[in-house]
Design goal:
This protein is an alpha/beta fold and 391 residues long. It has helices at 10-18, 26-36, 51-62, 82-95, 115-119, 131-139, 156-159, 162-174, 190-199, 243-253, 266-278, 292-303, 337-344, 365-375; strands spanning 41-45, 75-78, 105-108, 126-129, 150-154, 180-185, 204-208, 231-237, 259-262, 283-286, 309-312, 327-330, 354-360, 380-383.
Length: 391
Amino acid sequence: MSFESLKLFPQLLQNIEEQGYEKPYPIQLEVIPKILAKEDVLGIAKTGSGKTASYVLPILTLLENVKTKNRFTNVLVVVPTRELAVQVQEVFYEFSKGLPFPAKSLAVFGGVAINPQMKRMRNVNVLVATPGRLLELTRSNAVNLSKVSTFVMDEADKLLNLGFRKELDEILRLLPKKRQNLLFSATLNSDVKDLERIMQDVPSILETEKIVIEEKEEDTSTPLNTSVSLITQTGYFVSKEKKGPLLRHLIKENKMEQVLVFTSSIYQADQLTIKLRKNGINSRAIHSKKSQGSRQESLTLFKNNKLTVLVTTDLLARGIDIEFLPFVVNYELPRSPKDFIHRIGRTGRAENPGEAITFVTEEDKHHFRVIQKKMKQWVTMIDSESGAFEF
């Protein structure tokens, strides 16, 4: 099927072509007709599968017949991170170019001054927000959610963890009971199922290469069902003190020009960045302690291939789309198999191949076996201590 067959607004077809889309991805074929029919949807698809466009395009089409009252937004998209808020709003902006009806979008998030965001709230049709900043704006009467016709939760499983649950409950109380609900996630767990019961009235549950995860890591009886066919995975057995030299060796030996490196802590991200720079590798760290300006600048440099290595925590494990990213490195293992999947999912996106490299210490071996069993895929391991590497 083509985009023309999906009954989108005509101008959107031109914008789709200009954005380089040749044909719809599976999640888009499944989701777009359901949203246009104003059904509730729970969309489960792997990262890099076109989830954002699958709801942006039909939402923009539906805006043709919607009137907006100042500071009463029509569409609310809630996301867990500032970076994802910016990215989603950019997708709305790019696809809304040239539309003959109002389709103003705005991203709001914490970490920056609230007053400029309040001033820009005028006549916003689509508001993309992190939970905390959204509630600040409602309490200041900068925005009213009582007229929201479409409510979207992107990275729904993340939003439903304990850190967001209280804020999310407050947001739900501010929304009208009659609305369209759209939930999207790369992983399906008990939290997402709980929300399905709470807020959806017989939703369309659309799954394309879904990922189902049990939360208890030690329970290896239930495999992780996912598709990582475009991602080449390699693991290295390495001692903790030789991780840095091994990473530098791989980057220089393989002439890697764009590498996203995950650490387990802010401290480690900063320390690793310092060591990479001292060894002549252009790198930056991005994590929750960095200012929003610094985070956005680093991400932009990395996306534009002006930065060799971006070192981060799990802050960038979800939702961030870096086109054609060739390498992801797990410098340290994440806490859960679910986080591992989200990390390596930053590469191998939109039908482009990628490589995921994982460092495994003696202490990590059991945990990494659990991760592999959940993925239902065993990773090729290399012993970096065998003498084959000189670093």
